[in-house]
Amino acid sequence: MSDSVPVRMPKLTMAATDATFMEWLVEDGEIVEQDQPLYTVETDKVETEVPSPATGVLRYGAVREGEVYPVGTELALIEVTS
């Protein structure tokens, strides 16, 4: 059985409503571990690496580097197999 966990744009500060997607730190189709850094995002106050919410295979969404996305936007999926 396969299940998917969404990778979403995080809320980095109390006032943040969106953030700029900067870059993927792993390749599409790679196996990732929970809490492994997946990508970087930037707001006007902070730039940070965002960790994986689960262990599985990363499947990129249709996001582009340098684009601004609202908090909660689905950026990718992690296919979790059991």
Overview of the molecule:
The chain has strands at residues 2-8, 18-24, 31-32, 37-42, 47-51, 56-60, 68-70, 74-81. With 82 residues, the protein is mainly beta. It has a 4-stranded antiparallel beta sheet with strand order 1-8-6-3, with no helix packed on it. 0% of the residues lie in helices and 52% in strands. A hairpin with a 4-residue loop joins strand 4 and strand 5. The radius of gyration is 12 Å and the shape is elongated.
What can be said about this structure in brief?
The protein is an all-beta fold and 82 residues long. Helices cover 0% and strands 52% of the residues.
What's the helix and strand layout?
Layout: E1 2-8, E2 18-24, E3 31-32, E4 37-42, E5 47-51, E6 56-60, E7 68-70, E8 74-81
- So what's the overall shape? elongated
Termini separation (Å)? 6 Å
What is the arithmetic mean of pLDDT?
A: 93
Q: What ranges have pLDDT less than 50 throughout 5 or more consecutive residues?
A: none
Largest sheet: 4 strands, antiparallel
Structural class: mainly beta
Q: Report the helical percentage.
A: under 10%
In total, the number of strands is 8
Task: Note the main attributes of this structure.
single chain, 82 residues, elongated
